[in-house]
Amino acid sequence: MAQNFFTEIKIPQKKFFEGLVFPKILSPNPRNSVEFHSLTDAIKDQKPWLDSVLHQHGAILFRGFSVSTAADFNNVVEAFGYEELPYVGGAAPRTNVVGRVFTANESPPDQKIPFHHEMAQVPEYPSKLFFFCEVEPVNGGETPIVLSHVVYERMKEKYPDFVQNLEEHGLIYTRVLGEEDDPSSPIGRGWKSTFLTNEKSVAEERAAKLNMKLEWTEDGVKTIMGPIPAIKFDKTRQRKIWFNSMVAAYTGWKDARNDPVKAVTFGDGKPLPSHIIYDCLRILEDESVAIPWQKGDVLLIDNLAVLHSRRPFASPRRVLASLCK
């Protein structure tokens, strides 16, 4: 039984939606009567139960387990048995650490990363995300999370015409990439690492598979994605979700090459209303849960159910990630 190994803990940041706690926080049961040697053993033994918990609550935080290194984290990810998703088309600078584990967005610590579903701006996105706190931040650096269907319902209630436009037309995302990664930018991934190639022809092939248009410039490329849906229907939960990177693009895709106001438009090319975007950002913040990281924390997110972001922080902080199909 799962309760023989896991016990649910309560923390002040948790919230309840429709009677369900968000997120679900699991720790080792001090009265464990079953001989599990590690979290990975428990995951393998309780995989169906953990899958059902994730589906019901949208996110699980594993806290207090013996997960201390990137290799330990890689073992946890592999224990779940989800297929790996290559990071093709994403915007964030990342570095492979070990196995299926990468650094999370490497943008400077003073920069906030706005709410988004991982890779919502491309057709092939992960269904699951793992985060792991290897080095606990001095202060700040939380990864706030928010339930997507809650955001959809609040936006639909307040801005029905805007949401209808999104449902009818979708969104177009435009981003200008340099050749190499720009670590000073939260969207600074160069085209070579974005498409995992040094060849323009291969990049064009991989972009075409994503239905992404490329316009080459002297020192980089403009990528145009869309129209792509901004609202999806989550069939497994029978509800609509706010599945897009609209707020992230409009408020955060800013660097030497990119103007965030031009980064995202309605699918028919019309500009988005600024006041609604910023009100959506407020709603995201209002409904979110931000739990301070502790060393060894592993956060599992259902990417169809939950958006995430990153708050600024004081170094050192090292959070690793893994993406799954």
UniProtKB/TrEMBL annotation:
Alphabetical list of Pfam families matching this protein: TauD
Entry superkingdom: Eukaryota
GO molecular function: oxidoreductase activity
Keywords, in A-Z order: Oxidoreductase
Domain TauD/TfdA-like: 33-320
Gene3D superfamilies tied to this protein: Clavaminate synthase-like
Name under which the protein is recorded: TauD/TfdA-like domain-containing protein
Organism annotation: Fraxinus pennsylvanica
Lineage: Eukaryota, Viridiplantae, Streptophyta, Embryophyta, Tracheophyta
